Amino acid sequence: MGEADETQFGFSWFRPKSLQVLSNFIPFMIILSSNALLQGAIVNGLVSVSISSIEKRFKLTSTQSGIFAATYDVFVTIMLIPLALYATKVNKVKCIGLGMMIVGIGSILVIIPEYTAGPYSVGEARKDVCVTGGPDKKCTEGSSDSFSAHRELLLLLLSQAFVGIGASPLFTYGITCLDEFDSHKRTGRNLALYMIASTVGPALAFVGCGFMLRLWGDWRTSPADMGIDGAADPRFIGMWWIGFVLCGVIALFTAFPLLMFPKRLKDTGLRKANDVHRTDASLDKDFSDHKYEFFKIILMLLKNKTCMCVILMQTIEAMLMNGYITFIPKLLETLLGFSSGNASLITGGVVVPVGIVASYIGGRIAKVFENRFKPSMYFVITFGILAAGCSSCLLIRCESLNVFGVNVPSADLPKFGALETCSENCHCDPFFNPVCSEDSKLTFLSPCHAGCADSPDIKFGAQNWTNCGCSKNTIVKKGYCDASCQKQIYQFIIMFIALSFCIFITAPVLQSSSLRVVNHKHRDHFTCFGWLWMRILGSIPGAIVFGYIIDVNCMYWQKDCVSQKCQYYNASNLGWAFFIFTIAVKLTGGVLLFTAAYFYKESDKPSGKESCRTLDTDASESVKMSYEKVQL
Fold this sequence. Notes:
Number of strands: 7
CATH class of the largest domain: Mainly Alpha
Distance between the termini: 28 Å
Radius of gyration: 28 Å
Structural class: mainly alpha
Largest sheet: 5 strands, mixed
Strand order of the largest sheet: 1-3-2-5-4
CATH topology of the largest domain: Growth Hormone, Chain: A
Helix content: 55-70%
Strand content: under 5%
Number of helices: 19
CATH superfamily of the largest domain: MFS general substrate transporter like domains
Shape: elongated
């Protein structure tokens, strides 16, 4: 009964015969991929799409939102050591299922700060236009809003902590299970399909949440009451939280079948009969009976040049990619002037088809290479160099706007047909409601900054303002001045497609060939050890560093008594900073992979029947018998 249970689908007494067909690789692959899709949607999709809205909603800086994104990686890192320690002692598939349950709960938790933060506010109506009398508003010490702002941030971090803890088994045990349950020849293909699912998830989140961000996100207020007439208004707050709640609920259901999978599938022995041994000679060791097995394995990995060069390359790549994943929609808003919703839709529209096609092609190429390490590394290096070239798309941007008080000082106002003192007597609150003087193409931070008079016929939130001292014809219109850059948008999208293709096509090739470097018994240790480096030195600082770079390039901070929010960035400096960072990472990664290939030496162990037999030494007798039949 014990041996039969090892490959039976179900739990405890519930193991119906009708469900035993699920104890095979294809059903497992489908269910695992659906969970990867949801995890990708939550972590790499919804967080990125919602980051601008979260900053506006809770008045966070980009550095703080970077910390919010990095919290996920912090708690993934915390879980990596116990995952490596107990990899051979637990049912890895059930661990993945339990983790995805926690991911679902963590995703749903984001509704709590949205509720406790109270109604969304953009400022006071009285300072929307020029007021010439009365003192400016003063801040009172010990404002209760300050505690509230920190409370909401802590609640957001708590949500990310749950997601990080729960998602940690998915891309450690999940990858090794794909390699463990199916032939090594198909590992590249399986990883490609797995990565396609994890790519489709963020893409669907980008597209779906892009539409949700066009809907007003605070059920307690009305945008019209605050003078906000649509999603194009930079103060508009979309329904950012709905995607987290929906994905969280679905994750609770998709995770449940994983809790019923056995430790080993029925068709594993048949699928792995012809596996080929390609382990690096210095890593082909067995410490199964050693007292300090875990520490021996880690020390062996640390001493191996090939292993460490691959890990270091993936670490700096993780720093770059986590920064991109978190802030690429925000970068599109800054470079090309898109709204949050449109930036998300365009990003998702590129990532979906390109990610699917490139990952599939990468999986097929990995199969052609037959997991041979050196050809795989040279392939990855080539496309890494191409990606570095395509990253020049970050230098494409719309023409910079002329914004009074940001990059146009008072002394330059006469060039635009206005007096230097046109709004000198106006007491303007830090209220952001940009308006445009169309004749001079000059943007102002608010009607007040444009010197627009507070007349009875003008209501808060109007589309046009009259009696504006800083405008030639005294009329200004709502929103930024138009920056026509249709040509630049098309150029950016074409090069962004090429950049995405070069990134996605290498992932299955690199991952599948890297798994062959280590002994099959050390797959979990290698994967967890690699992720430990990637999180601590890559993903965690990546989001924070990119957030800091964005904050440093802020040209106008809207400040109040509690916090500050950047409303306008230096697009040129921001594009150059991201471009230089990308070039440095790609070139350094290429050098590391070349070094890894140079020091790699394949083990001289024979492949075929003898080596294949060692791949499943812990298998049950029934699986061994089926294996022997295949060999004969």
